[in-house]
Amino acid sequence: MSARVEMRGLRVSFPSPRGPVEVVRGVSLDLGAEKLGIVGESGSGKSLTARAILKLLPAAAHIRAERLRFDDIDVLTAGERQMRAIRGRRAGLILQDPKYALNPVMTAGAQIAEAWRAHHRGRRRQAMEAAVELLAQVRIRDPARVAGLYPHELSGGMGQRVMIAMMLAPDPELLIADEPTSALDATVQAEILRLIDDLVSRRGMGLILISHDLPLVSHFCDRVMVMYAGRVVEELRAADLAAARHPYTRGLLDCMPSLLHPKPRLPVLARDAAWNE
């Protein structure tokens, strides 16, 4: 069963010469066995909000919240040992670009096996067999051969599948996918998202998908949170995204090009100072 995440009034700030600067301001969410999409511009606080659940923020970050729980664990007061029991084992994080996330001097199989052994009891041979099986689950052809390849020998799509296999090794209850397809072409993006959707559904996991792609999120997720300048300005069912009411969400939708309704010039988002309040 998927873990329950409860967040109330999350605030994340960083020190600056002029004093603390809040970059996440009062974000609240509840998540169970569902797919939640978080969208917004770069710098809106999407990744920081998701990473706060795992306490994977820079050392300078200061976290405050009325409530931040992962099932029965109070994340705010949890020590590093408790958090390590969540990270990987119960919650996995898929990063944006496998070129930077994978270890360049270890084979794909060795990296997946390492993740498997960190959370299961077993010998190296068992771990490598599990790694090959996980590569097969993420639909890599000839998984035994790919297990012996180094990251520079993998295509972008294969590298991302290896990342997903690593996150699935401990059989987590929650998957956080931070722009998992941003470095891939459109065809491979669709394949990776179908794969994540299938795995999340079959395993009964919760999913947080962070993305800039509104149409993608509207088709892929159950709910969508729209963030602007560290705040949630709108939350709605993904199927209702086209009927969003907040001017910021409407502006993002209107700025998107369309083959069905071409425009001679795309509009520019008109910002309102009131959105920061």
Strand content: 15-25%
Give the % helix.
25-40%
Order of helix and strand elements from N to C terminus: EEEHEEEHEHHHHHEHEHEEH
Broad structural category = alpha/beta
Q: Give the biggest sheet.
A: 6 strands, mixed
CATH class of the domain at 1-81 and 213-268: Alpha Beta
Mean pLDDT: 88
How many β-strand stretches?
A: 11
Runs in which pLDDT lies below 50 for 5 or more consecutive residues are: none
Shape: globular
Q: What's the architecture of the domain at 1-81 and 213-268, going by CATH? A: 3-Layer(aba) Sandwich
Q: Can you identify the CATH superfamily of the domain at 1-81 and 213-268?
A: P-loop containing nucleotide triphosphate hydrolases
Quickly count the helices: 10
CATH topology of the domain at 1-81 and 213-268: Rossmann fold
Radius of gyration: 20 Å
Which strands sit side by side, in order, in the main sheet? 7-8-9-3-10-11
Distance from first to last alpha carbon? 38 Å
